[in-house]
Amino acid sequence: MTSSTTLRGLRVVLYAVSALILVDQVTELAITALPARLSDMQWRFGLFGLFAGRATPFLLADGLVLATALIFEDSRLIRPWAILHLILALPLAVGLAVFGLDVVQLGRTVRTGAERGFAMAAVRAGVMGLFGLAYCVMAGLIVFRATRKGARRHAADSSEQSLLVVTKGRS
Amino acid sequence: MKARAVAQRDSLETALAKVGYWIAAGLILDQLVQVWSSVDGFDLAVPAWRFQVALLFSGKALVLLLGAVVAVATARLYRPSRQTPILRGVLVLALVGCLVMAGVLAADGAAVAYTIPGAQFRGFTASRLRGIGLLIGAAATFWGLVRVVRPLPEDSRGMEEALNRSTSTPPKTTQPQP
């Protein structure tokens, strides 16, 4: 038997786990990446590679937040979460473009024998960066549209019902 | 108020199902790209290369399984799913892949064992046995997931109901016998 207190507790736990995963990943990234050297090409390349290498925990945390929000019908959280995805897509797109340019420039300076490792790291980061960008845009759009569609469908349903009531009243 | 909640829940459920497939694809893609970028070259004829790939895969088996579980849960949530046959195909492929990799670890491991220095032999055997165990466990779980994804009678009933709702035709009802 599940009481409402237990369910509320479960909801808090699920959100806390997602937050913990996100904070842990961001902290690890920050510890490795700081101090920031934005003008250093190698630092930018490394940062993007690190970010792309953490796709799995980020995806898990995101999925957990969305699933929890759906199960507990937290429609107030879902919409900002979708907007956050769309906002995140912008720096990700810029980062991906800069990363592409850095790969071209760094590729010329890589010492002989290390080309393969460099190319592998670049492809891996590029593939996951592209996927991350596509995911942010798609997830943001899908969820954002769903919240609007739900509201619209309700509006259509209620106007249809009120029309029926008016027609019945006249007849 | 209740109608609004139901409409919103339906839309969000569909959205979560779509995003669920994206998450599953992301988890699986990340693991595959990690394996691909860690492997030295491509040489199927060399037992050491095959062994290395199989060992790398065994390390990724659990996350791959997690991705598969997310996809299967999504398929169960999103009932009128066209993706179900594709998902079953992927699961069967993963199941066969796990068994093949376990076979590679067992067979090629014996060939590679001669090249391992004595001091590292214990660690080598441990990682080999761990890999075989993980891959066989993953194969068994993939088999379970294949069975879960199989269309059940309730699924077809659910789809029929959905079809009835979408075409606005009343569902068939059995007439009481006189």
β-sheet strand percentage of chain B: under 5%
Biggest β-sheet of chain B, characterized? none
Helix content of chain A: over 70%
Query: What separation lies between the terminal Cα atoms of chain B?
Result: 43 Å
Q: Topology, pairings included?
A:
The complex is a heterodimer of chains A (171) and B (178).
Chain A: H1 4-33, H2 41-53, H3 55-71, H4 75-109, H5 115-170
Helix pairs in contact in A: 1-3, 2-4, 2-5, 4-5
Chain B: H1 2-38, H2 47-77, H3 84-113, H4 121-149, H5 153-167
Quickly list its features.
heterodimer, A: 171 residues, B: 178 residues, mainly alpha
Describe, in plain words, how this protein is organized in 3D:
- The complex is a heterodimer of chains A (171) and B (178).
- Chain A has 171 residues and is an all-alpha fold.
- Chain A contains five helices and no strands.
- Chain A has helices at 4-33, 41-53, 55-71, 75-109, 115-170.
- In chain A, helix 2 (41-53) crosses helix 4 (75-109) and helix 4 packs antiparallel against helix 5 (115-170).
- Chain A is elongated, with a radius of gyration of 23 Å.
- In chain A, 22% of the residues are buried.
- Residues 155-160 and 166-174 of chain B have low confidence and may be disordered.
- Chain B has helices at 2-38, 47-77, 84-113, 121-149, 153-167.
- Chain B is mainly α.
- Classes of the chains: A mainly alpha (171), B mainly alpha (178).
- At the A-B interface, helix 3 and helix 5 of A face helix 1 and helix 2 of B.
